[in-house]
Automatic annotation (TrEMBL):
This is Dynein axonemal assembly factor 4. Keywords: Cell projection, Coiled coil, Cytoplasm, Neurogenesis, Nucleus, Repeat, TPR repeat. It comes from the Eukaryota. SMART domains: TPR. TPR repeats lie at residues 363-396.
């Protein structure tokens, strides 16, 4: 059973209540705090402090500071005034009901926060989708405008060429008429002087040109009949490279990019200087090979050897979350519960940001940490981890049953202790 902390002190003002709880030499990272508007619990193994407040507080505006071996709570009163007592004096049944009500409030608050977060995420996705569609629409409009401009330009050039062709044809007709008149007039003159016709060869008896050839008149004009070549160009179409299978408008680009950067960092760590591990074989220098070896040892029940394999793999690369999560599973089998909690927490830190690619690994890490908490009889903390895992995999029947079982243990007074 936990040991109750009774050597706490408290002071107050019209709007604020200050509570000082000694931590008995426990580190700040090992302190767990749970607070509602009428209930405050501080747990640091093997001690526990509970306060059933006589007046309601605003838990959202209240704060806690831990340091120098003491936890200082600044509680914001909902109503102005001085309290006669910090806590109420009731029987165990009343205390039990207050705990249950506090747990229900905490669950409702978590559910409301999750719903609000989901709503905000949905709105952000909707806004991002609208922006993306707007950008795509603008891009399509820009491309369509380019096509229309090119079409208008080509049409204008074609009309200009047709007009030029009509002018050339008119000039040809006029020149042809003029040349026919000239030839006719010269033939008449030559006929009167008994000279050869120019149309029969355009040369006189001495082999010299003394007339006009129709070919000579129109030959030069034919060079201007063809239009100039049209200008050509290319439109570059670039597609966004995607590693994740989701569409760009449906994905969480910043989170996925951060996750890919972490994976790249883990791969680069393989080339780091190994120091004292330089005598390892080529296989033993591969953390993924060591992970597979540890998994096989775990399957055969050799948990200590599996832990040694995971330890060596972590020395080679500290950025692989599966190593910490699997080592936590080994510590659970060996009842090293605090180490299991530490390894599971480290795995969850590496499994950020939460994306679809690491959902299964995050669910396993939450279950292993929640199991360790429940083995330490810290059922509220265990319930929070199981609820986080159930949120990732809501259709898992086993998770649903385990979460319901933990909730029943809490409601049946498993955390009750002596006054």
């Amino acid at each position: 059973m936990p040991l109750m902390v009774t050597d706490y002190t408290w002071t107050q003002t019209e709007w604020i209540v200050y509570i000082h709880v000694p931590l008995k030499g426990v580190k700040a990272g090992e302190v767990d705090i749970f607070c509602t508007d009428d209930y405050l619990k501080v747990h640091f193994h093997p001690f526990i402090f509970e306060a059933f407040l006589s007046e309601p507080i605003d838990d959202d505006k209240s704060t806690a500071k831990i340091g120098n071996g003491i936890a200082v709570f600044t509680l914001q009163k909902k109503e102005e005034g001085l309290w006669e007592h910090l806590v109420i004096d009731c029987d165990k049944e009343t205390f039990r009901r207050i705990r249950e009500r506090a747990l229900e409030k905490a669950c409702e608050k978590l559910a409301a926060e999750a719903k609000a977060k989901a709503t905000k995420t949905q709105e952000e996705r909707k806004y991002a989708l609208e922006i993306m569609m707007k950008l795509e629409e603008e891009e399509r409009a820009r491309i369509q405008k380019m096509k229309d401009d090119e079409r208008e330009k080509a049409t204008a050039e074609l009309e200009e060429w047709k007009l030029k062709q009509r002018q050339i044809a008119a000039n040809k007709t006029q020149l042809k008429i003029q040349s026919q008149r000239i030839v006719t007039d010269k033939e008449i003159i030559l006929e009167k002087t008994h000279a050869p016709k120019l149309s029969d060869g355009c040369k006189d008896e001495h082999g010299k040109y003394n007339g006009f050839s129709q070919w000579y008149i129109f030959g030069k004009e034919k060079q201007d009949c063809l239009p100039s070549p049209r200008l050509t160009g290319n439109i570059q179409v670039k597609f966004t490279p995607r590693i994740f299978p989701t569409a760009l408008r449906e994905s969480r680009v910043p989170e996925e990019e951060e996750w890919l950067q972490k994976q790249a960092k883990a791969r680069r760590a393989l080339n780091a200087d190994l120091g004292e591990l330089k005598n390892l074989t080529e296989e033993e220098r591969n953390p993924h090979w060591l992970k597979d070896k540890g998994d096989k040892l775990f399957a055969t029940g050799n948990y200590l050897s599996a832990i040694n394999a995971y330890n060596l793999a972590i020395k080679l690369n500290r950025e692989i979350p599966a190593l910490y999560s699997n080592r936590a599973a080994c510590h659970l089998k060996l009842r090293n519960l605090y180490k299991a909690i530490e390894d599971s927490s480290q795995a969850l830190d590496l499994l950020t940001p939460p994306v679809a690619g690491n959902a299964g690994a995050r669910a396993r890490a939450h279950v292993r940490r929640g199991t360790a908490f429940c083995e330490l009889e810290l059922y509220i903390e265990g319930l929070q981890d199981y609820q986080a895992a159930l949120k990732i995999d809501p259709q898992n029947k086993t998770l649903q049953a385990d979460t319901h079982k933990i909730r029943q243990i809490i409601q049946n007074g498993a955390l009750c202790h002596s006054d």
